[in-house]
Write a structure and sequence with these properties.
Strand content: 15-25%
Helix content: 25-40%
Structural class: alpha/beta
Shape: globular
Largest sheet: 7 strands, mixed
Distance between the termini: 19 Å
């Protein structure tokens, strides 16, 4: 942990915070046109932090107009890639410089442990912006393999105006995931943060403007999903929408696209992710450490959380013993602003009650509770739930099938490799998976058989900016520089020779590239 992250430094930053609570449109903070606001609260205490501008369709339209004007004017889209790169690198530097401020904002508003915000989330946001900035001047156009008398060129161009609708669990990080590829390729962007977590995104917009990103290129419209979010999905002058959130809402954005201008949609939705532990593993202590991190990182409020532990029956009891030992010693639940806390508060009361209801249903089904299983009723009045583990869970139990989005781990035993793969794939999702085996052949064979967009071997991993992120089935289709970039490719075919026309005609169409659905990582 950084020596700069102390209780005193955190307290000083909390006292000095200035909340940006207005929309950021065309380079300045403005109230919602209606004057409406909504409350944002601290989930660790239930107390209101501030009032946020509640944008609706009128505000979204103003943001789209500003974004389109900036795009057509070329103040960003027509810059040389090296110029965009320099500004984005400065943006990343400013994020690093304001790391503590942004981390405190996220800990206060999202209930996330300050140590994770400061050491992981905010640095990753800066690194994602920086990585895509460095890629901006390294993306080459191409020449197709034609005959000698023809020349066919492929030119990559920004798609235009990109709308991005963010989740509440990783506010700044998900903003970085959307902004990085969109800005690097010359697009204008409109972000709608989740109504529960708007503050860090609004501060990012201010830092981006300070870095030199022109007015209108990066806009933030806070608001509710059924107003501002729907307005983004339905707007006919938005060319692409990138959404991260539930599968239910992801479906709506596909409907919005069909009902409006057939805008492109990028979806990163839910998951019920398996962690498979084969009997060949020799270091159960290391496995247990990663399993707990996969299950309980960010209080389990993570679409790629490893909420199903599928473990060979011969080693299940030994692994479970190690899990319980580490859970007791290493995973402290408490005040998110305490640098020694690993588990903070769940995002809001309604979500906490939903998580508790899943736990109570599992208890009523007679499942074997071996850790946690209850709400922590603190003096602060916050929304805390103990990290919970159920053992010997049937594969068809509700907690083995439904995405809980909380600190709940279902331990499912298996006897054969075929059974493990069958259990892992027995879900409507396919976002991520982890696999532990000391046998290389087993690792390759099983990784190929698991239906998940990201498969990490002998670790828990989500990859990073260098690799795609997306899934199978109802987990959606995500992005990365290797796919779903907010660009179009235009193709121009020129016939060479004595009859070469002075103004050759060109055909313009979208070129779909193959994509990777499996990643194996080892760290």
């Amino acid at each position: 942990m950084s020596t700069y992250l102390t209780s005193d430094s955190i307290s000083q930053h909390v006292k000095s915070l200035e909340y940006r609570n207005l929309a950021f449109i065309n380079g300045r903070f403005v109230p919602a046109q209606s004057g409406a606001t909504f409350e944002t609260s601290n989930p660790a205490t239930g107390e209101v932090i501030t009032q946020i501008a509640a944008c609706d369709a009128e505000d979204v339209d103003l943001a789209v107009q500003a974004a389109r004007q900036a795009f057509e004017a070329g103040v960003w889209s027509a810059l040389a890639p090296a110029e965009r790169k320099a500004i984005m690198v400065r943006f990343a530097e400013l994020i690093d410089e304001h790391c503590m401020e942004l981390a405190v904002l996220e800990a206060l508003e999202a209930g996330k442990p300050i140590s994770e915000c400061f050491n992981v989330d905010i640095p990753d946001t800066a690194n994602t912006i920086r990585w895509h900035a460095e890629a901006a001047d390294k993306l080459y156009d191409a020449i197709a393999p034609t005959g000698k008398k023809e020349l066919a060129t492929i030119t990559r161009e920004p798609i235009g105006v990109v709308g991005a609708v963010l989740p509440w669990n990783f506010p700044a990080m998900m903003a970085g995931w959307k902004l990085g590829p969109a800005l690097a390729t010359g697009n204008s962007v409109i972000l709608k943060p989740a109504e529960l977590t708007s503050l860090s995104t609004l501060r990012l917009a201010e830092l981006a403007h300070e870095a030199g990103i022109p007015s209108g290129v990066f806009n933030v419209v806070p608001g509710l999903g059924h107003t501002a979010g729907q307005a983004i999905g339905m707007h006919s002058d938005i060319d692409l929408v990138a959404f991260t959130g539930s599968t239910e809402i992801g479906r709506r954005f596909l409907e919005y696209s069909a009902r409006s201008n057939l805008k492109r949609i990028v979806l990163e939705c839910g998951g019920k992710n398996p962690q498979i532990v084969m009997p060949s593993v020799s270091d159960l202590k290391n496995v247990a450490s990663h399993v707990l991190a996969a299950a309980f990182w960010n209080m389990g409020e993570n679409c790629s959380a490893g909420s199903r532990l599928i473990v060979h029956r011969s080693i299940k009891d030994d692994l479970l013993s190690e899990l319980l030992k580490q859970l007791e010693s290493d995973w402290v639940t408490g005040d998110p602003l305490d640098p020694d806390v690993q588990l903070g508060a769940l995002i809001e009361k309604a979500h906490m009650e939903k998580v508790v209801s899943h736990i109570e249903q599992a208890k009523s089904e007679g499942l074997k509770l071996v850790a946690g299983g209850e709400r922590i009723r603190s003096e602060s009045g916050g929304y805390f739930v103990t990290p919970t583990i159920f053992d010997d869970v049937p594969r068809d139990a509700s907690i083995a099938k439904e995405e809980i989005f909380g600190p709940v781990l279902a331990v499912i035993p298996f006897d054969t490799e075929e059974e493990a793969i069958s259990i892992a794939n027995d879900t409507c999702y396919g976002l991520a998976a982890s696999l532990w085996s000391d046998d290389l052949n087993t690792a390759h064979r099983m990784a190929a058989a698991i239906h998940a967009g990201t498969v990490s071997v002998n670790c828990f991993s989500e990859g990073d900016a260098t690799t795609p992120f997306g899934g199978y089935k109802q987990s959606g289709f995500g992005g990365g520089i290797n796919r779903c970039m907010p660009m179009i490719s235009t193709a121009s075919l020129r016939r060479l020779g004595s009859n070469f026309p002075e103004s050759p005609s060109s055909s313009r169409h979208i070129l779909h590239s193959p994509f990777t659905v499996l990643r194996m990582a080892s760290r």
